[in-house]
Amino acid sequence: MPLVTPLSPNHDAETKQLAEFFNETLGFCPNSVLTMQHRPAISKAFINLNKAVMANEGRVTSALKRMIAWVSSNATGCRYCQAHAIRAAERYGAEQEQLDNIWEYRTHSAFSEAERAALDFSLAASQVPNTVDDKIKERLYKYWNEGEIVEMLGVISLFGYLNRWNDSMGTSIEEGAVESGEQYLGKHGWDKGKHV
């Protein structure tokens, strides 16, 4: 049972219109957004931030952004966000081999060295205490420019917010996210946890 009950998708007309973005990314409006509607300024600001962070401005693909989100969510333990991130990665064209082997991104041949650098950055930036260091920086700059690094950290930071929101809220997970979580993450023990 979530800490706060999600409101109807029709509760706030402006949020509803902005939330159409999630029909593309996930195939549904997330319960997290429906909960944020208790204060519509928060739901609207969040959706606009999400759209800005996930926009493609360089070589950081939509699929890679969602895999960065998955690594961040895995590091913090938010099962809700893990399932959402892997679902969105699938919907945005991540290779099947990457989806099937996301847990082994450091060693699996489906991931390039540039992707590994980005995903290691996500892991280091998502830990408490933060472990981003000169070695991570050096690897990032080998493959990515400063604007692309800003895009990556935008994803990591956005999911830092979402991980805290959804794990504290105990947000109920939607069926589509459950399907993706079970398909790609279940073999490594993923389940809904408190997000029933």
TrEMBL record:
Highest taxon of the lineage: Bacteria
Entry-linked InterPro entries: AhpD-like, CMD-like
SUPFAM superfamilies the UniProt entry points to: AhpD-like
Keywords of the record: Oxidoreductase, Peroxidase
A molecular function GO annotation: peroxiredoxin activity
Alphabetized Gene3D superfamilies for the sequence: AhpD-like (1.20.1290.10)
Residue stretches making up the Carboxymuconolactone decarboxylase-like domain: 40-120
PANTHER family per record: CARBOXYMUCONOLACTONE DECARBOXYLASE-LIKE DOMAIN-CONTAINING PROTEIN, SI:CH211-175M2.5
Protein's name according to its UniProt entry: Peroxidase
Organism, as annotated: Aequorivita soesokkakensis
